[in-house]
Amino acid sequence: MTGTPDPTPTDPADAAVAALRDALLAEHAAVYGYGFAASRIGSKLHDLCLAHLEEHRAGRDALHAELVARGSVPPGGEDAYALPEDTGPEALAAFAVGLEETTAQAYLELAAVSVPGLRDLAGRALGEATLRVLALGSPLSVFPGFPGGEL
C-alpha cells in the first residue's frame, strides 16, 4: 500500500507512542550518519561529529526507554541508510546538518503531543539540535524543526 499515510492516532497515548517511535527512528539514522561522517571528516570537525554522535546515542537511548516504559516495542535501526557520495568536509558537514534537521522535525512532532514530560524532552532535544546545526556552521533557520525552516 504505497502513498497512503497511516492515520493520525486520536488517543493521546497512541499519539505519544507514534511520535516517540518516529523520533527514535530519526535518532537511529543520526547515530548511523554521524558514525559515517566522523570517520571521514577532516580533523577540524572530527571531534565535533564525535560529540554529536554521543548526544544522538543518548537521545536514542532516552527515547528507547520512554517507549519501553509505555509498554511499546521500540523500533530498531535500519541495516543501512542513504549516505552522501561526496565525502569532502563541506559535503559531510551539510549531511550532518541534514541529520539535525530530520531529528529536529521529529522532535517538533513529539512536542505536539499532550504529555508534558514528553513535551519537555522534545523541547530540550529540539534546542540541542538547533545548537548542533549552528556548531556545524550552518545559519539558524527562522523556525527550527519546520521543513525548510518556515511555517
Automatic annotation (TrEMBL):
CDD domains: Ferritin_like. This is Ferritin-like domain-containing protein.
